[in-house]
Amino acid sequence: DVKVTQSSRYLVKRTGEKVFLECVQDMDHENMFWYRQDPGLGLRLIYFSYDVKMKEKGDIPEGYSVSREKKERFSLILESASTNQTSMYLCASSFGQGGSYEQYFGPGTRLTVT
Amino acid sequence: GENVEQHPSTLSVQEGDSAVIKCTYSDSASNYFPWYKQELGKGPQLIIDIRSNVGEKKDQRIAVTLNKTAKHFSLHITETQPEDSAVYFCAAGMEYGNKLVFGAGTILRVKS
């Protein structure tokens, strides 16, 4: 079974802190994604990566950056956390071109910024 | 860019009844339409998808229909069961691309 794990289920941080959210997948997937999930807004794409060291902005990249140094790991970084970044963060992965387009999601990290 | 609208936002049905969730999309270039189910405390999981060269697809109690002309697609769940209670998301994207745009989600409650 494909497994996508996220470093924390719940995280509480203070305004201005630097926050790292880690995601690891064990299926050698080329694509990895970071979404945030808010009630009434669905899942919105923050960033995605289609290869090591490659990244593309999604629909809401402002205030976030990402890092992919190894194929299995994709990190989301909040350089200076703000209260409006309180949300559920979901990581996902999928095969690259030529494979299945199904995205496999982790369980999510609920981040609260106070 | 692509925009996906999903209705209704909440849906309550009696066990055994059918449930229908509808989505519309804006970009005529989109050709891949998956549906994801999210249970409490878990990440979304793909339940069915459809490509634009197909009008309907069925998998046991779940079916999806696509109307390319009208740019809308729907999820149909028949003989609903309590374990169907979850949040359902539709999405649209390009089959050979990487990005999906998701709808806002529908909370489905099946009452027993």
The number of helical elements of chain B comes to 0
- Oligomeric form of this entry? heterodimer
Unreliable spans of chain B are none
Largest interface: A-B, 25 and 26 residues
Our estimate of the beta-strand percent of chain B is over 45%
What is the alpha-carbon Rg of chain A in Å?
13 Å
Task: Give the arrangement of secondary structure elements.
The complex is a heterodimer of chains A (114) and B (112).
Chain A: E1 4-6, E2 10-13, E3 19-25, E4 31-38, E5 42-51, E6 54-57, E7 65-70, E8 73-78, E9 87-94, E10 104-105, E11 109-113
Chain B: E1 4-7, E2 10-14, E3 19-25, E4 32-38, E5 45-51, E6 56-59, E7 62-67, E8 72-77, E9 86-93, E10 100-102, E11 106-111
Parallel strand pairs in B: 2-11
Antiparallel strand pairs in B: 1-3, 3-8, 4-5, 4-9, 6-7, 7-8, 9-10, 9-11
Structural summary, described in words:
The complex is a heterodimer of chains A (114) and B (112). Chain A is mostly beta strands and 114 residues long. Chain A is 0% helix and 55% strand. In chain A, the strands form 2 sheets. In chain A, strands 2, 4, 5, 6, 9, 10 and 11 form a 7-stranded mixed beta sheet that branches. The mean pLDDT of chain A is 94. Chain B is mostly beta strands and 112 residues long. In chain B, 0% of the residues lie in helices and 56% in strands. Chain B has no helices and 11 strands. In chain B, strands 2, 4, 5, 9, 10 and 11 form a 6-stranded mixed beta sheet that branches. In chain B, strand 4 and strand 5 form a beta hairpin. At the A-B interface, strand 4, strand 5 and strand 9 of A face strand 4, strand 5 and strand 10 of B.
Quick summary:
Chain A has 114 residues and is mainly β.
Key terms:
heterodimer, A: 114 residues, mainly beta, seven-stranded mixed sheet, four-stranded antiparallel sheet, 55% strand, globular, B: 112 residues, six-stranded mixed sheet, five-stranded antiparallel sheet, 0% helix
